[in-house]
Amino acid sequence: MNTIIDIENLTKHFGAIEAVKGIDFNVEEGEFFSLLGPSGCGKTTTLRLIAGFENATDGAIRIAGTDVTDSPPYSRDLGMVFQGYALFPHKTVGENVGFGLKMDNVPKDERERRIADVLETVSLSGYQDRYPKELSGGQQQRVALARALVVEPSVLLLDEPLANLDLKLRQKMRFELQRILDKTNATTIYVTHDQEEALSMSDRVAIMNEGEIEQVSSPTELYHHPKNRFVADFVGEANLLDGTLSSMNGTGGDIELDVGSTVSFNGQSTTAGANYAEGDRIAINVRPEEFEIHRGVHPTGTRSRELSERRRSSETSHSSWWRSTTTKFSSRRPVERRT
Predict the structure, then answer these.
(1) 21 vs 58: CA distance, rounded Å
(2) SS3 call for 265
């Protein structure tokens, strides 16, 4: 596959604040790539830098091999969908969609053909003469998407385009958006703080935190093999159990948890590239679906009252035990060495 977007040491300062801290990543042709992170992590700033709406303090932005770091937005061959859609209220759907084509001096006949084609793609055929106020939120979102797609950009940039929709419509539009992008094979960079959106739609996801990229991986890799504690805790639901590495046995070992139990791990369950030594502080990540709860005492299980620090409740008694499921044992994994 060809690399369409290449980001190298991208940095952005706002006065004394370093909003983006020397990040690196690339996006392949036809890939759906998401920037995912909490509010204020720098993901939207990164998108605006790629679009040319902000000037980079340092680093390079290359699109299809051409350095566009200092180029104006109109010369970057990008399409963008904003969170607020930014439709012209006094223009019809057809005029909104065709605005970019008109600015590019595309002949009227070709302009009308391309407008009709893209409206069919987003399931809005016959809506050319309506105004934005006459459309639902989902329809307005599709008009904004059609306006970005009709100019046939090298890359499509989406800045939380579903954030203004209610939950049910957002879920529906997520599948509709996937259908449209699969049909057009558009290279896409998608910004969101909604991990369900990112993990269900993306080929790869970059997890951002405080202006830095913590990990770039497939959704499955992020969930099952987080690089560090932040990623493990941010992606999905996580039970992070702290402890101390008490012994090593080849690539595996035993960890004494702070709650008083001991668990074992193997080399396949550890964070890639991590080196551990006896005495290291370790965090173990166990996903909720990987627990099994049973009555009675099991010789290889751990008493639930030990893990709950002897909380007194009718739901937690000394006669129950827990273990990770056999098929998911690898997720009983150290996610981070702690000092």
Answers:
(1) 9
(2) strand
Question: Beta-carbon neighbour count of residue 245 at 10 Å?
Answer: 19
Q: How far apart are the first and last CA of the chain?
A: 41
Under DSSP, is residue 299 helix (H, G, I), strand (E, B) or coil? coil
Q: Say what the pTM is.
A: 0.81
Cβ-contact 166, 108 below 8 angstroms: no
- pLDDT string in tens for the chain (339-residue length): 699 999 999 999 999 999 999 999 999 999 999 999 999 999 999 999 999 999 999 999 999 999 999 999 999 999 999 888 889 999 999 999 999 999 999 999 999 999 999 999 988 999 999 999 999 988 998 999 999 999 989 999 999 988 877 888 888 888 888 888 888 888 999 999 999 999 999 999 999 999 999 999 999 999 988 988 899 999 988 888 888 989 887 777 888 888 878 887 776 555 654 677 888 888 888 888 877 776 666 555 555 444 444 333 333 333 333 443 322 223 345 555 555
Length of the chain as a residue count: 339
Q: Is 48 left (phi over 0), alpha (psi -120 to 50) or beta?
A: alpha
Going across the sheet that includes 155-159, the strands are 78-81, 155-159, 188-192, 32-36, 204-209, 212-217
- Is CATH 2.40.50.140 what the domain over 238-338 is classified as, yes or no? yes
Cα–Cα distances in angstroms (integers) from residue 146 to residues 76, 93, 94, 99, 219, in the given order: 18, 10, 10, 11, 27
Can you give the residue ranges of every domain in the chain? 3-231, 238-338
3-state secondary structure 129-192: CCCHHHCCHHHHHHHHHHHHHCCCCCEEEEECCCCCCCHHHHHHHHHHHHHHHHHHCCCEEEEE
Answer yes or no: are the C-beta atoms of 135 and 166 closer than 8 Å: no
Summarize the chain as % helix, strand, coil (round to 5). Answer: 30, 30, 35
Q: How far apart are CA 93 and CA 119, in angstroms?
A: 9
How many whole angstroms separate alpha carbon 38 and alpha carbon 42? Answer: 9
CATH code, 3-231: 3.40.50.300
- How many C-beta atoms lie closer than 10 Å to residue 54's C-beta? 17
